[in-house]
Write a structure and sequence with these properties.
single chain; about 80 residues; mainly alpha; DNA polymerase, domain 1; 5 helices; about 65% helix; globular
């Protein structure tokens, strides 16, 4: 039987590493490698929506610009991966 949650996590990991902007590739890819396996379904869905956002917006939000509330918890986890943050 196919595990759809596992397929979803693999797809999100791939999308995290292949965005087009090297900075966000590295940040989101590392996050996916370290955290996707343990994200609860609610946060997994929020992460999938986050990946629909532009690299520029994600980068701005990580660097302290106002972000949508739905991403607040994810962005805090992402900020922990930024050197010197």
């Amino acid at each position: 039987m196919i595990n759809t949650e596992e397929i979803c996590r693999k797809r999100l990991r791939y999308r995290s590493w292949h965005r087009g902007c090297k900075e966000t590739d590295l940040l989101l890819g590392r996050f996916a490698d370290e955290k996707l396996a343990v994200l609860p379904p609610v946060q997994l869905a929020a992460y999938e929506r986050l990946l629909e956002e532009s690299d520029a917006d994600i980068w701005d939000w990580i660097n302290g610009h106002d972000a949508p509330e739905e991403y607040a918890e994810l962005l805090e986890s992402l900020k922990c991966l930024v050197p010197g943050a």
